């Protein structure tokens, strides 16, 4: 077994709790992850969701960096379609200057919310035909490295400050095309296995990235550890992902059928198809979860897992993180 463990946290707000409490629990979880030896701690970006407090990952990253001292802290990820690549480069160069060698910039393609949130985020965008994600991604990489093409419309704009080292750069995705894009620009790639756990797609995507970059991608997935298998399965419950397919060709993953219907309503689309799936969750005792991770590492050559714990209760999340770290340490010993 030769892989690292990292965490992705969404700052969930359990029933009866507040956003302030949820964010403090994220801080406590990051501090405990550092003590336990996790490699990195990422925070997600979600908009218009009353059950999640993490709508501004760059702000939370800065706070977490100030409350920890060794663990890498980053975004998992910034939803690039909403923002100026120039501004994202500036923000993460500031963060990398505040905490050299500890900052991760993860970016993703998803909107991170429903259409009204997207509309509000993009209200001041240039109304000319929008550039695709690949173009924005290339611009972000160029602004980070200050290598923008002299013929580019924004040539001459330099993203300052200049940190001692750039943030470590990760693209989050779930397809061979995303893997190829990451490799083309020299970025790390994290496969979103918690949204697309199809073994054939994982294998193909991992192969594309490894052949193009010479590196192994990391694998993000749902995992929950409890003292017994029965306890873990009970905590996970009937977790579902609803993939909404709109007649416009857009598709998006949502946590409930109600959220999917609301997305379609806000998008102004009456014709849609809903695909209900049960995401793959590695749930069980410490030994069982470790064995499953061992098997995935061996099958796909994965050298790092980014664990998303799919429960809202802080005690359960903390226990899962501690039990998994204990099982990993035992196996290493």
Please provide a written account of the structure.
It is a single chain. With 333 residues, this protein is of the alpha/beta class. The protein has helices at residues 19-36, 57-67, 85-98, 115-121, 133-145, 176-184, 199-213, 229-236, 257-267, 286-300, 314-332, and strands spanning 4-9, 40-43, 72-75, 78-79, 103-108, 168-173, 188-192, 218-225, 241-246, 251-254, 272-277, 281-284, 304-308. It folds into 2 domains: 4-227 and 280-332, TIM Barrel (Alpha-Beta Barrel), CATH 3.20.20.30; 240-277. It has an 8-stranded parallel beta barrel, surrounded by 8 helices. The chain has a 3-stranded antiparallel sheet with strand order 10-9-11, covered by helices on one side. Helix 1 crosses helix 2. The longest helix has 19 residues, at 314-332. 42% of the residues are buried.
Question: What structural keywords apply?
Answer:
333 residues; alpha/beta; TIM Barrel; 2 domains; 3-stranded antiparallel beta sheet; 11 helices; monooxygenase
Give the topology.
Elements: E1 4-9, H1 19-36, E2 40-43, H2 57-67, E3 72-75, E4 78-79, H3 85-98, E5 103-108, H4 115-121, H5 133-145, E6 168-173, H6 176-184, E7 188-192, H7 199-213, E8 218-225, H8 229-236, E9 241-246, E10 251-254, H9 257-267, E11 272-277, E12 281-284, H10 286-300, E13 304-308, H11 314-332
Parallel strand pairs: 1-2, 1-13, 2-3, 3-5, 4-5, 5-6, 6-7, 7-8, 8-12, 8-13
Antiparallel strand pairs: 9-10, 9-11
